[in-house]
Design brief:
The protein has 15 helices and 17 strands. The chain has 505 residues and is of the alpha/beta class. Helix 9 packs antiparallel against helix 10. The radius of gyration is 24 Å and the shape is globular.
Length: 505
Amino acid sequence: MAVLPVSAMELDPHAVAVLYNSAVPESKQLAETFRQARNIPEENLVGLEMPVAQDISREEYITRIQNPLRGEFDKRSWWTRGKDANGVLLPTSNDMRVLVIMKGVPLKIQPAPLPEGFKVPENDPIAGRNEASVDSELAMFGAEGLPAQGVLKNAFFGSEKPISESAFPFLILTSRIDGVSFATCGRMIQDAGEVEKTGLWGRAYVDIANKFPQGDEWLNSIVISNRNAGIPTVVDRFNDTLPMNYPMTDASLYYGWYDWNLSGPFLNPAFKFRKGAVAMHLHSFSADQLQDPMKNWSAGLLEKGAAATVGNVYEPYLGLTHHFEILHKRLLAGHTWVEACWMSIPVASWQGIILGDPFYRPFLHLENTGRMVADDNDFRALRAAAMKWPSDSATRQKQLMGAAVRMKSGIVSEAIALEAVEAGRMAESTLWFRNAEESYQSPQDKLRQRLSLAAIERKEGRKDLAIRDLKAIAEVYGSLPEATAAKGWLDILDPPAPPPVTPKP
């Protein structure tokens, strides 16, 4: 993949419009906060009086959002529109390439009756559907004469060039600053700006649930990309998702599937992502609502400290969601959050939403530039080794082994063990997980090494040894809330006896 100059991968603030709900004072305040944070011209703010509701009808969308917004673009001379060969009125030039949607703007367009005489083609469950996210509809809101049913092709899908270099004036990339509270939204903006000074460093967690090959392949591709980039990655390949209270420390990246609601590590009240974290869970209704952090996924991940996520408001079908592996690769290449997300989704006028500061570039300093922070040093060391020996894994691992001993680094020792697991070198991984447990100071980190050792036994089919290791965790770390994770796995491998049946009188 070609790496573009840094300047070419920045968003132009003058090409970014900000949409807020003028009926919600906090929505306007949030728009102003965002505008100032990214030096967007004041005249690029657009306030429309919209319904104060998450779900709206198709008619409300057309009359309260789509048509008034078209009027604003016309009035401000932001675009020029003309008809194509099929009579569709489209933007032929567009000064605005990104539309940022503030909390307070409705989220979902409810399904509406199909036009009279409309026949849904057989074996096409998509063609007759017109429910959608507001954000996905707005991506091509300048086009008139297109049906509301089905999907529209995203011409930006798979691109490696920024939107400023594209020839798609009819497409405007949408992103949303939204969540459980306006305080969370403000924190998302602040975190993105701060982390861009240092770069995003930390550990990745990838939970491969073995549901459908396509989704599993996406996640496996992320594991490989991280290995090449020097990002230590904990990979769970069991059918069950990560257990309750799993000790997910230093989490800067999370990709997983497939639970309905927030689960596993995120149920631990003490869990918090690293500042600026990118986190997402693949599920059909991950962004069905954004008010309750315990329901679905998008709201909860943000409430746990993530700065950015993606989700779906209705059933999207797997192939029409964000392709996680493309999204991740574009972020690693240095693209902005909004561009990486739109490069990874094949359609518009559908169910996807993007949550987070569109300007955010978490891997701006992946080449080990940026302001140095002590907590990042060990993660930077792993990246430096990946940069120095990109195609010589044996030398890289040897050098890291020496560094792990010299630095007494649990982070580096665990990274060595994790790579050895992926390479099938189980004896080596066992040695380094034990070394990591000795080197770490945090009991939660120590506990995770024990879980990794039990996972090796489970993966290798040594059920009795896995059960032994999990029981030992309870003896050593049983006072920690995170020890619940060991019980979760133990209940799978060695289910407790059912309670006695009470005889009927």
